[in-house]
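FIELD: query
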Amino acid sequence: CIKMTKEIGAHAALFKDNHVLFLAGAQMMPYFQDFYKETEVFKHPEFVVAVDSAQTIEKLYSYRTLPQINVYDKDRKLVKTYNGDVPLDSLKQYLW
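FIELD: result
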């Protein structure tokens, strides 16, 4: 997750017209301070980092590997799921 977040952050301009949400399960809370420090995600106010304390993501998604990237269209319909690190070129086609 850290590697992918750094990659996205390094190319934040690509995502300026899109919503980017980094969502983690509550069990990841002990790692958040290191995540923020290492990724510097806080430097990008257009990115949102959240914790799913209700454990909803565990019911909605079946993670094979992390990170998992879910791409939604403007109508909030899931159009693509990536598991593991993804080249940014693969994501560009979904950006508006």
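FIELD: remark
Strands lie at 20-25, 47-52, 68-72, 78-83.
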